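# nightly structure sweep
# worker-07 picked up a monomer target from the shared queue
# config: single-sequence mode, recycle default, output format = structure tokens
# input follows
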Amino acid sequence: MDEDGRQTWVEHLSEDECWRRLASTPVGRIGIIYDSAPELYPVNYALDGRAIVIRVDPGRVLAGLTRSPAVCFEIDHIDADDESGWSVLVKGRARELVDGPELERAAALPLRGWSLGAKAHWVRIEPEEVTGRRIWHDAG
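# output follows
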């Protein structure tokens, strides 16, 4: 119990619950390795079944995942007033979609970018592990 008499709980989210939360927001963060160092970038995304699709410009994200396709992808929600929140982490492999039916399918997804520019490169993240957790308090 904390000093306010509340008990803190950590709940591990099921994979299905993680995917529901992934479907609930259009912005996440991709973690890549660039020049042997981890870097995180906010990105807009859409789900294609149980895969994540993003668009990027030429630059560090595309170069990083081309050199090292192992990536992580994270979304979260924090309520600072209540000191509660949740997060979902996806570990997987990313690859650029270059042509054919996969690219056409990705182009039909409801993926809207918030930043300027066309974001010419489509990237698909194939999950290998999906985990999530939620922290919350009871009234005590």
